[in-house]
Amino acid sequence: MWFDISMPIDSSMPTYPSDPQFLAKPHKLGGINSRVTLHQLELGTHTGTHVDAPLHLFPAGIPISNISLDTFIGPCYVLSLDKFSLDLLPKLPQNARRVLFKANGELPLKPNWLEVYQGMPPEFASELVKRELLLVGIDALSIEERERPILETHQLLLEKNIIILEGLNLTSIDDGWYFLSALPLSLTGLDGSPVRAILKKN
Q: pTM above the 0.90 mark?
């Protein structure tokens, strides 16, 4: 059984405050004058459930189109927590190369997510870097702690080419091993991409 852990994309969805709002504009509407229905989309590369490529933070970083697809597909481990604490790291299997953190309950779907979400502190990210992970995910629209002007956690992960997966809906997901598929669009030379993230229990 597959679990969809993506945010629905629509005009009412929450977004990061400085990011563009999603908009779907009718381009062709099936009927007398057209046989097809087609919409024009306006959205950011970090809309909804999405991945951050190193280019998101580093001008010479790898763009999303140059990242191996193996990064986004394969075994992953889901770990729930009340607070990011270094004491939790022993619970994370040493062989996990993709990790999803369930840290925010029903977020990121609530409109007030920015006021209440929990991000990952830099000292926790520093320990993850030592594990040579491929991908780190979180159930918030940003992995960064609130009101942190310097994006330290992003820097620590992306400078080591550890891809960040944000905006996950892990509400119905238990801890443990899964198979993850979170493929980005093939957006040539860009900094990130929305994804349809799904899990299958191992």
A: yes
Catalytic residue among 46, 50, 56, 154: 56
56 is catalytic: yes
* Homologous superfamily assigned to 2-201: Putative cyclase (3.50.30.50)
Query: Helix, strand, coil % (nearest 5) of the chain?
Result: 15, 25, 55
What pLDDT digit, counting tens, does each position of 125-142 carry?
A: 999 999 999 999 999 999
Q: What is the mean pLDDT of the chain?
A: 94
Q: Closest Cα to residue 64, out of 166, 164, 190?
A: 190
Cβ partners under 8 Å of residue 190, min gap 6 = 45, 53, 55, 63, 64, 65
